[in-house]
Design goal:
Collagenase (Catalytic Domain); 11% strand
Length: 291
């Protein structure tokens, strides 16, 4: 990649993180994905209350290592976890969603897109605002963070998983096209004539935002309407998350545009994974009834 293009991607990574729907734009204590949450139960907790920080980190590294990935425990935009009870609890909660999300992929996909590490941190901030995740293509990484949700908050862990996949897709897009905001003519051609997008993810800020599903034909979620890059990442994220994936499949049966977008992503996943993520694999994921 040319130096100028690389520098541009560094800046775009920060802008993209500022635009991603990873905030608390819903009322205080409520997640913007809560209205669409498919599971009343929480994900199985990793090492809950029993392991030291070093033991939690070692467990995470072992599981990610089987995927050909490294765990990094710092990021310039965030705080590292410390060996304190509250930090161990927060890291446990983060790992409980990130690890099973990434274990849905074969390691071939990560090698193909040049993803080398996950940065697992807390209190990730971009322009002073908390974020759950951001792609960091300049570091061959995606950063994921616990942001200290208040006790009793209506947080949808399956929705957090969908965001995990969403941010991975932004890195994939940057690797494939050298641009987080590539306006893929093949994708745009799937929309009916006259369809226009909004002004980007940043315009979701400034009020209460609920990321409702299938708000209009051809779009998997309300956030997908904000830009073609978000449309692609939302289809990818929903297709990769149990509970959400079943809805995409159901809506696609009566929505030819959304079905075309789903088929587009099926073909891309199969190519990137060297055939491992075939339609049968993704159909099985869509029929899972638990995280």
């Amino acid at each position: 990649m040319r130096a100028g293009a690389f520098a541009s991607l560094v800046g775009l990574a920060l802008l993209l993180a500022a635009c991603a729907p990873l905030h608390r734009a819903a009322p205080a204590g409520q997640d913007s994905m809560a209205a669409e949450c498919p599971f009343p139960t929480r994900y199985t907790r990793v090492g809950h209350g029993a392991l030291t920080l070093a033991e939690l980190q070692s467990m995470a590294q072992a599981r990610l290592g089987r995927l050909g990935l490294e765990a990094a425990w710092s990021a310039p935009e965030a705080r590292a976890f410390e060996d304190l009870p509250e930090d161990r609890e927060r890291l446990s909660a983060l790992l409980s969603v990130v690890l099973p999300a990434y274990e849905r992929y074969p390691r071939e996909l990560f090698a193909r897109v040049g993803l080398r590490r996950l940065e697992l941190v807390q209190d990730l901030r971009v322009a002073g605002q908390l974020r759950r995740a951001m792609p960091a293509v300049q570091r061959d990484a995606v950063a994921y963070a616990d942001i200290g949700d208040p006790p009793g908050a209506a947080i949808c862990e399956a929705g957090i998983e969908a965001r995990i996949h969403h941010e991975l897709y932004h890195l994939i897009e940057a690797r494939l096209f050298g641009d987080y905001y590539h306006r893929d003519p093949r994708w745009l051609a799937l929309n009916p004539a006259g369809v226009t997008y909004g002004n980007g993810g940043a315009s979701a800020y400034g009020g209460v935002f609920h990321n409702l599903g299938h708000p209009r034909p051809g779009f998997v979620s309300r956030y997908a309407l904000y830009g073609p890059e978000e449309d692609k990442a939302e289809v990818f994220g929903w297709m990769m998350t149990p509970g959400y994936a079943a809805r995409v499949m159901q809506w696609s049966r009566d929505d030819p545009v959304l079905n075309a977008k789903r088929e587009f992503m099926l073909a891309l996943m199969q190519t990137l994974s060297q055939g491992r993520m075939d339609p049968a694999y993704l159909d099985a994921l869509a029929h899972r009834e638990a995280p």
